[in-house]
Amino acid sequence: MADALKDMYSRAFFEGLANKVAEAYPPFDRVAYLERVFASDWDALELKQRMRRGAEALRPGLPAAYEDALDVVLRAADLCGSGFPYMLFPDFVEVYGLDDPERSLPALARLTKYSSSEFAVRPYMVRYPELALRAMREWAESEDEHVRRLASEGCRPRLPWGMALAAFKRDPSPILPILERLKRDPSEYVRRSVANNLNDISKDHPRLALDLASRWLGEHPHTDWIAKHACRSLLKKCVPEALALFGVGDASGVRVERFAASSGFVEEGGALEASFALNVEAESPRKLRVEYAIDYVKANGSTSRKLFKLAEREFPPCAPG
Question: With b meaning 16 or more CB within 10 Å and e meaning fewer, what string describes 175-211?
Answer without folding.
Answer: beebbebbbbbeeeebbbbbbbbbbbbbeebbebbbe
